[in-house]
């Protein structure tokens, strides 16, 4: 019983530490952060469900922050060795390397994805999962990001993006691209929706 209590006690501060780290980074650079707090568990699990854990190739996560979505991907069955975590914040990179020692952590700008991944990717990605604040960026920046993501992805593999906005972060009418969306996740604060884009 004391062991269980100590395990429980050690887990609570970790979550609080993550929220403090996130809030501090958001206050320093609000437009670089997708949210004020890490993604909720239900949102993270919803994003992970669009990734096939048995597919070949790496799974690229953009803007993993403290690893909320990363955890959900691993719980979903994605081998940690397949994860390529692209994070801009050097403090979060250090944290991710500590938490996910088998993943490849790349410190770089996800909005310059081709430059960031050019010497990292040996095979096409089986998924790109993004926690980036797309709606804070101009539409041309968003379109460049998804174009670069599709260049890194295997045909038909998903680009998974969440947003707090009611409108999709990238237009649904892109030529040759299929789009689907999850139900609105009301249990997340703020409520969110997951959008999935695939190019044939």
Number of domains: 1
What is the β-strand count?
Answer: 7
Structural class: alpha/beta
The CATH topology corresponds to: Rossmann fold
Low-confidence stretches: 1-14, 31-37
Kindly provide the name of the CATH class: Alpha Beta
CATH architectural group = 3-Layer(aba) Sandwich
CATH homologous superfamily grouping: Vaccinia Virus protein VP39
* Coarse shape: globular
Helix content: 25-40%
Beta fraction of the residues?
Answer: 15-25%
The SSE string, one letter per element, is: HHEHEHEHEHEEE
Radius of gyration: 16 Å
Q: What's the total helix number?
A: 6
For the largest beta-sheet, the strand count, sense and barrel status come to: 7 strands, mixed
Average predicted local confidence, pLDDT:
86
Strand order of the largest sheet: 3-2-1-4-5-7-6
Distance between the termini: 54 Å
Organism: Bradyrhizobium uaiense
GO molecular function: methyltransferase activity; RNA binding
Keywords: Methyltransferase, RNA-binding, S-adenosyl-L-methionine, Transferase
Protein name: Methyltransferase
List the helices and strands and how they pair.
Layout: H1 2-28, H2 41-48, E1 59-62, H3 68-75, E2 83-87, H4 90-99, E3 104-107, H5 113-117, E4 127-130, H6 139-152, E5 158-163, E6 177-181, E7 193-199
Parallel strand pairs: 1-2, 1-4, 2-3, 4-5
Antiparallel strand pairs: 5-7, 6-7
